């Protein structure tokens, strides 16, 4: 690990470090950069907020988009993955009325199918040229990012909110040279096969979006539900990278937030550094931090006044992330799919139930995820009672067998407060969902579904038909 620090984050030999940072970006530039160059580099000249991190990228990007649109800007919004339709990943919001429709679950602002077909023709041709001339094949995400850049340029967006797909340093979005701000969400262990097996390596990859003289707003690793040792190590990497790039760094965490009210309708909180009070519909215990990361980034760029910030934070929604799909019985849908997200979900469920309302968990996940730690975080809580666990399978070849998931849940529940919980398995999501709802009605419980964003998308589609 000392060698890692020496090679990647040592600041005493700044010239050497700058060269290392430059060279570390070359694989992305040979791949995505060559593709973009052949379609005219549509990203050039865009005003961009760049968001990376393990958990919370999407929520931060949603807060950014809602604040900016509330301030009167035409906003390009690029996210991944999608829940129900590919077109969700590439949006433009041009008016506060778009926010109202989005809040009503209307598919507003999404890139039209015909636009995809029209813009993809020259992008595919450019991809073939890159492969023929360099032998490097652009990735699927390169093509999708090129599509987003092309549409945002064509539509002359005032500002673009750009979310990384994976990591940051080598991500297709990291072609942007001078973002208005780089924003880093909560850090955790995920995608370790590609980002590294230790927190320093993961932080190095995420912090790769930091650019010279551009401000950085980071979710404080000490609030990220990782060990103190990991948090200190992550901060060390982030601070070194910020110094290399002369990038002003601002941390925000739980110490900066005081929650004033909390209910199913949302939460009211005070931002301690200013004393200002905000409301948000989002229920996660971490959402006030995400809201203020977005608010401070926009404020630093001078693109929104306090009124627009308040309005934007208040109207922000982010589907599939602690989303209330039903009120009776209460059905919560969350995309938590790693250990840190599981820990955060446990805190939120404990706050919502107050330890008095029992819980039915509906879970489906991937076999290549650290699902054991995720399950342990949620199932072995002593702050609520679990009446039942229903295992199912998300619609993906990477899915973990519902019956294997059932076995893991049985082992964990056997040594928990809820050792008497009923544990069932059904690989068909619709049947599993209906079973969870029936059990909730019988037991006077709430349903909380989690484990995969693919599962979240499937449940949203099924629930729309169900209701």
Provide tags for this entry.
467 residues, alpha/beta, UDP-N-acetylmuramoyl-L-alanine:D-glutamate ligase, Protein-Tyrosine Phosphatase, Chain A, 2 domains, seven-stranded mixed sheet, six-stranded mixed sheet, 17 helices, 16 strands, 16% strand, globular, disordered N terminus
Topology:
Elements: H1 2-8, H2 14-24, H3 26-38, E1 48-52, H4 57-70, E2 75-78, E3 90-93, H5 96-103, H6 113-134, H7 140-154, E4 159-163, E5 181-184, H8 192-195, H9 199-206, E6 216-219, H10 228-244, E7 249-252, E8 257-263, E9 266-271, E10 276-280, H11 287-301, H12 306-315, E11 323-327, E12 330-333, H13 339-353, E13 359-363, H14 371-379, E14 386-391, H15 402-413, E15 422-425, H16 429-443, E16 446-450, H17 453-466
Helix pairs in contact: 3-6, 4-11, 4-12, 6-7, 9-10, 13-14, 14-15
Account of the protein in words:
By secondary structure, this protein is of the alpha/beta class. The chain folds into two domains: 2-315, 3-Layer(aba) Sandwich (UDP-N-acetylmuramoyl-L-alanine:D-glutamate ligase); 323-466, Alpha-Beta Complex (Protein-Tyrosine Phosphatase, Chain A). Helix content is 45%, strand content 16%. It has 17 helices and 16 strands. It has helices spanning 2-8, 14-24, 26-38, 57-70, 96-103, 113-134, 140-154, 192-195, 199-206, 228-244, 287-301, 306-315, 339-353, 371-379, 402-413, 429-443, 453-466; strands at residues 48-52, 75-78, 90-93, 159-163, 181-184, 216-219, 249-252, 257-263, 266-271, 276-280, 323-327, 330-333, 359-363, 386-391, 422-425, 446-450. A seven-stranded mixed β-sheet has the order 3-2-4-1-5-6-7, with helices on both faces. Strands 11-12-16-13-14-15 form a six-stranded mixed β-sheet. α4 packs across α12. The longest helix has 22 residues, at 113-134. The protein is globular, with a radius of gyration of 22 Å. The model is unreliable at 1-24 (pLDDT under 50).
């Amino acid at each position: 690990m000392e060698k890692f620090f020496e090679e990647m984050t040592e600041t005493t030999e700044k010239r050497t470090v700058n060269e290392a940072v430059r060279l570390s970006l070359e694989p992305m530039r040979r791949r995505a950069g060559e593709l973009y160059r052949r379609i005219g580099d549509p990203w050039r000249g865009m005003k961009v907020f760049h968001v990376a991190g393990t958990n919370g990228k999407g929520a931060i990007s949603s807060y950014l988009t809602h604040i900016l649109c509330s301030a009167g800007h035409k906003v390009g919004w690029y996210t991944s993955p999608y829940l129900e339709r590919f077109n969700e990943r590439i949006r433009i919001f041009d008016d506060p009325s778009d926010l109202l429709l989005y809040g009503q679950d209307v598919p507003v602002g999404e890139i039209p199918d015909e636009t995809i077909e029209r813009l993809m023709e020259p992008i595919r041709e450019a991809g073939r040229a890159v492969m023929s001339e360099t032998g490097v094949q652009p990735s699927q995400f390169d093509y999708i990012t090129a599509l987003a850049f092309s549409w945002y340029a064509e539509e002359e967006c005032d500002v673009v909110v750009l979310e990384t797909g994976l990591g940051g340093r080598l991500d297709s979005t990291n072609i942007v040279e001078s973002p208005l701000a780089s924003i880093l969400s909560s850090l955790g262990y995920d995608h370790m096969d590609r980002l590294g097996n230790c927190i320093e390596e993961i932080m190095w990859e995420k912090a790769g979006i930091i650019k010279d003289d551009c401000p950085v707003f980071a979710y404080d690793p000490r609030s990220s539900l990782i060990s103190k040792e990991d948090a200190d190590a992550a901060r060390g990497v982030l601070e070194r990278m910020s110094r290399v790039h002369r990038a002003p760094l601002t941390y925000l965490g739980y110490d900066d937030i005081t929650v004033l009210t909390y209910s199913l309708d949302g939460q009211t909180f005070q931002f301690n550094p200013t004393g200002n009070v905000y409301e948000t519909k989002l229920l996660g215990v971490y959402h006030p931090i995400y809201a203020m990361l977005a608010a401070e980034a926009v404020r630093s760029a001078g693109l929104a006044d306090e009124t627009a910030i308040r309005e934007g934070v208040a109207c922000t929604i982010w589907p599939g992330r602690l989303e209330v799909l039903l009120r009776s019985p209460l059905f919560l849908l969350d995309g938590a799919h790693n250990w840190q997200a599981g820990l955060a979900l446990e805190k939120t469920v404990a706050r919502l139930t107050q330890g008095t309302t029992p819980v039915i968990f509906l879970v489906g996940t991937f076999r290549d995820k650290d699902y054991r730690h995720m399950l342990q975080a949620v199932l072995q809580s002593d702050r609520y009672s679990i009446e039942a666990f229903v295992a199912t399978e998300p619609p993906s070849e990477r899915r973990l067998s519902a019956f294997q998931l059932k076995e893991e849940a049985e082992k964990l529940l056997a040594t928990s407060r809820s050792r008497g919980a009923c544990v069932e398995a059904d690989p068909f999501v619709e049947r599993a969902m209906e079973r969870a709802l029936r059990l909730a009605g019988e037991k006077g419980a709430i349903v909380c579904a989690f484990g995969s964003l693919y599962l979240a998308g499937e449940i949203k589609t099924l629930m729309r038909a169900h209701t």
